[in-house]
Amino acid sequence: MYKKCAVPIKRLKKEVDLSKFKFKTTEDISPLVTVIGQNRAVRAIDFGLTVDNPSYNIFVTGIRGTGRTTIVRDLLDKIATSRSKPDDWIYVYNFENPDEPKAISLPSKRTKSLITKFDRLIKKIKSSLKTAFESEQYVERKNEIIELGQHKKRTKFSKIEEEAKKVNIQIKGSSAGFQTLPMINDKPMDDQYFQNLTKKEQKTIESNIKLIQKMIHDMVNEATTIDRLVEEEVENLNQETANFVIGTLFVDLLNEFEKYPQIIEYFKTVLDDIIKNVYDFMDDRPAEQFPGKPAEMMDGKRIDKYKINLVVDNSQLKGGPVIYEMNPTYNNLFGRIEKKSYMGFRYETVDCVATCTTAFTVFSAAMVKSLELSSALTRLTICAGSLT
Q: Can you tell me the distance from the alpha carbon of 57 to that of 365, in angstroms, rounded to the nearest whole number?
């Protein structure tokens, strides 16, 4: 029985005539670029990939082990390399609505250059502004404006003092304001002396005091107006100085990215914001800490709103991207906004926001179907062409 089942030793080894091969090692052979078998499936998938319509999708099914994933991956990798590389995406601060950062697309070859040059520019602007505001010319001009305002106030006060002396009244400044004291022989009049005066003399002194007090009241209002006008002139000087410094430094970047309207618009909003908040922009003081409030939420971290955040980087791609998502949860498919928690506060930052743009996305339909939210949003996103 056993002898009938025995296999000769010669048949246990497959002998190959190596002389028939035209290569020495497998390194001399070009790799296989076609799929073995499944010709009909390959033609169907290949045709589907040439349909340039976002509402057209390919559903691949079959028995496990028949090479579904391999076929799809090989065909996608091949066609993706012939596609153009997609743009990068950046997030920038929205000065009109800080809770909604602006998303801007830019060719990947320009994105990192923009971020590097813009970051360098912000630092340069900061140092240049400090130099400009510490310059002798600026300080002299600012002091002239302030001194002119002080001179106007002193002139008005001197006139009131002269009027007060004519009626023997002294004006004395205090933390509570101005006091008006009747004088006699260059000394303040005491209550006893005032009571010994005639009614007519008392009424005359009281009338003079009211007149001087009204003049002081009017002078205080005028002084407030003068201070406001001085502040406005100093602010105008600051903006004029800042505009000159920043405008000069921004010229190169404006010229370099003039073909990108959204970038130019962002540059202009940054320029306007720095000019309007020039002292806040130059402020190096750390944010003041309040109990229960994290440092990221402080006004002191103002420089962050001038940061360009790269959220989609396609610089390493060769052609169109292909993403294989084997765990198609809601967050993996549509991104997330990461929130931080601190002492009861929840907040997020711009550079935590995730997003992606792809030429092809491959995921398990069975897995998506098992996740109801992901399945519904996938259908809506495919139909609408955006996640909103």
A: 12
Q: Are 215 and 160 in contact (CB under 8 A)?
A: yes
* Whether residue 64 sits in one domain with residue 105: no
Whole-angstrom distance, CA of residue 344 vs CA of residue 102:
28
> d(Cα 314, Cα 86) in Å, to the nearest integer?
7
How many domains does the chain divide into? 3
Long-range contacts of 297-305 (CB under 8 A, 24+ apart): 297/345, 297/347, 302/277, 303/122, 304/93, 304/349, 305/93, 305/95, 305/98, 305/273
User: Per-residue DSSP letters for 32-44?
Assistant: P-S-SS-HHHHHH
Tens digit of pLDDT for each residue in 315-345?
Answer: 888 888 888 877 777 777 776 666 666 566 6
Measuring CA to CA, which residue among 70, 56, 61, 80 is closest to residue 360?
A: 80
Domain co-membership, 183 together with 298? yes
The answer for residues whose C-beta is within 8 angstroms of residue 361's C-beta and 6 or more apart is 322, 323, 325
C-alpha angle with apex 174: 169 to 175, nearest 5 degrees? Answer: 155
Q: For the beta carbon of residue 53, count every other beta carbon within 10 angstroms.
A: 6
- Strands 309-312, 88-92: pairing is antiparallel
Query: Quick one: 96 and 44 in the same domain?
Result: no
Q: What span, in angstroms and rounded, lies between the C-alpha atoms of 295 and 101? A: 20
The whole-angstrom separation of Cα 230 and Cα 218 is 18
Please, how many CA atoms are within 13 Å of residue 213, restricted to the half-sphere of its CB? 11
Q: Which two tokens stand for residue 10?
A: 């010669």
Last residue in a domain, options 34, 59, 80 = 80
Residue 293 banded pLDDT, cuts 50, 70, 90: very low
- Residues 210 and 310 placed together within one structural domain of the fold: yes
pTM of the model: 0.66
Strand partners, 90: 104, 310
As a dihedral over the C-alpha atoms of residue 347, residue 385, residue 322, residue 367, rounded to 10 degrees, the angle is: 80
Percent of the chain at pLDDT > 70 equals 79
Domain range for 117 is 81-317
Tokens of 117: 């040059």
User: Please, what is the Cα angle at 357 between 356 and 360, to 5 degrees?
Assistant: 115
Residue of 308, 303, 305 whose CA lies nearest to 123: 303
- Cβ atoms of 104 and 262 within 8 Å: the answer is yes
Only one residue has tokens 């003068």, namely 226
